[in-house]
Amino acid sequence: MKAILRTGYGSPDVLEINEIEKPQLGDDLVLVRVHASSINAQEWRLMRGRPYLARPMMGGLLRPKDTRLGVDLAGTVEAVGKDVTEFKPGDKVFGMRWGAFAEYVTGTEKAFVHKPANVSFEQAAAVPVAALTALQGLRDKGGIRPGHKVLVNGAGGGVGTFAVQVAKYFGAEVTAVTRTGSMELARSLGADHVIDYSKEDFTKSGIIYDLIFDLGGTHPMSAVLRVLQPSGTLVLAGSVAKGLLGPLAMPIKSTLMKPFVKKKMVFFIAERKKEDLLTLKELLETGRIKSVIDRTYPFSQVAEAVGYVEQGQVRGKVVITIP
Predict the structure, then answer these.
(1) Is the pLDDT of residue 287 over 80?
(2) What DSSP state is assigned to residue 208?
(3) Distant-in-sequence, close-in-space partners of 215: CB < 8 Å, separation ≥ 6
(4) What was the pLDDT predicted at 145?
């Protein structure tokens, strides 16, 4: 089968289409023919091998040992093992499996849920990592409640577009912070207030929030905490930092600050949970959330697609189609 592999660390030129062995079907596994996958920030960071300090965790100091990429996917079940009861060949599914930039993946039943009939493969593939981050960050880490004043910093990106919708689903009053070109998008997703970060600094507005969902790490944490209620929560779920520490700077800073800060700060990375994928499936089916797709690229242009995501100007998600 065909798959996108990294020939090393570096620019998008290190991404190439290669022929690799089709995954074997075990008794408890589901074989899925991938129709679409989406790109997250982790893909370009793994491609670059940045931050350098994280390379041992990436599987190799000088070269990646596991050269595959991709997590989000949507496709059709091609075969199932004898112990699988939830799925059958022909079922349309979406979910998360490492190596999703490929024609086929295998996984246990926990990795997939049925795709809603009212969304396309491309729309479904845009959901898993981004929407799980929004759901778990706001609900589980942020303790969101109806009537809460919630600020989403970085509301125009993949996680941010889902975060605005999820916060509205939970009955919050949502303020979206984004760039000029994404302001109307944020309003269309339900944001009650929209701040253009190029013209206004939300940390100086004087408005106090119950929950701040920070996806950019664009402001000093001390400034962000000033506009948070004493009983509120700052959820740190992403960073645009590209320095020596890259996105590691945020959890390190928050850990160092915690002993000196009375307000609640939480840094987290989304977990794959079947029950949460089922929740997202229901929200998609009922129209409570939708995928925002900036661009769609064919499989042959994955390198270009990852390079575009790396630029940091994506509105919503970038999706790859696999013919």
Answers:
(1) yes
(2) -
(3) 152, 153, 154, 155, 157, 159, 160, 163, 237, 238
(4) 98
Length of the chain in terms of residues written: 323
Number of CB atoms found within 10 A of residue 65's CB? 8
| Mean of pLDDT values over 1-20 | 95
Helices 128-135, 274-285: inter-axial angle, 10-degree rounding? 100
For residue 16, the surrounding DSSP H or E stretch is strand 15-19
Please calculate the CA angle 244-247-252 and round it to the nearest 5 degrees.
Answer: 85
Which residues contact residue 140 at a Cβ distance below 8 angstroms, ignoring those fewer than 6 apart? none
DSSP 68: B
Q: What is the pLDDT of residue 234?
A: 97
77 bridge partner residues: 32
**Element holding 284 (H helix, E strand):** helix 274-285
208-258 confidence digits (pLDDT tens): 999 999 998 788 889 999 999 999 999 999 655 555 555 555 665 556 566
User: pLDDT value at position 217?
Assistant: 78
Count CA atoms within 13 Å of residue 130 on its CB side: 34
203: which 2 tokens? 């940390």
Q: pTM surpassing 0.85?
A: yes
